[in-house]
Amino acid sequence: MWNDDVNCSICNKNFNSKDALDQHNLAKHSSEVKSYKKLYIGLFILVLIIGVLFFNKYNTDATKEIVDENIQRITLGFTNNYEPNTIYVKSGIPVEITLDKTVKGCFRGFNINDLGVSKLSSNPDDVIKFTPTNKGSFRFNCGMNMGYGTIVVE
User: Fold this and answer.
1) Measuring CA to CA, how many Å separate 108 from each of 5, 43, 54, 67, 81?
2) C-alpha closest to that of 94 among 133, 131, 134
3) What is the predicted pLDDT for the residue at 37?
4) What is the pLDDT of residue 116?
5) Structure confidence at residue 141 (pLDDT)
6) Ramachandran bin of 12, using left for φ above 0, alpha for ψ from -120 to 50, beta for the remaining angles
7) Which residues have C-beta within 8 Å of that of residue 150, sequence separation ≥ 6?
8) How far from chain centre, in Å, is Cα 31?
9) Which residue from 21, 53, 82, 109 lies 20 to 30 Å from 150 (Cα-Cα)?
10) How far is CA 106 from CA 77, 82, 143, in A?
C-alpha cells in the first residue's frame, strides 16, 4: 500500500505514515506532555526564586538607617553569625549599632578592639555608640570570639 506524506497540523512537520504522525503527536503534543513541561518550568522558576532569596539573605551588607544625617544607625541580627557581617560606615560620623532579638548569649558582648569599642548589650534596646576616626577594615566580634564580622570605615 502506498502512503502519502502525512502532515502534523500543529507543528507542520511531514511524516511518511499515519503511525509515525500518531507517535509524534503522542510524544510532542499530548496534554500530558504539555502538563509536564509546565510543571518543570514552574519548578525551575520556584527553585530560582528560592535560590535568589537564599543568596540575598546570606550575602547582605549592612544597610544604614539614616534618620539623622549626623548618625549612622545599624542593626545587626544573628543566624550562625552576625548578619550582615560586613558593615560600611563613614569616618568622623557617629555610629549607633543595635543588636536585635536574634542575637543571644555571648554574642551580645560586642567588641571592635582596634577602635576601642566594647559593650555588653543586654537587650535589643541597648545602643552601642562610637565615632570611628581611622579609615580601614576592622574586625568586630563577640566576647568569646565565636561570632565575628568586619566594619569598613570609609
Assistant:
1) 78, 40, 25, 24, 12
2) 131
3) 77
4) 93
5) 96
6) left
7) 85, 86, 87, 137, 138, 139, 140
8) 37
9) 53
10) 14, 12, 6
**Cα–Cα dist 50/41, whole Å:** 14
pTM, two decimal places: 0.56
H-run or E-run covering 145: none
| 115 φ/ψ angles, rounded to the nearest 5 degrees | -110, 5
SS3 readout for 39-107: HHHHHHHHHHHHHHHHHHHHCCCCCCECCCCCCEEEEEEECCCEECCEEEECCCCCEEEEECCCCCHHH
Residue ranges of the chain with per-residue pLDDT less than 50: 1, 59-66
Which has the closest alpha carbon to 137: 121, 126, 148?
148
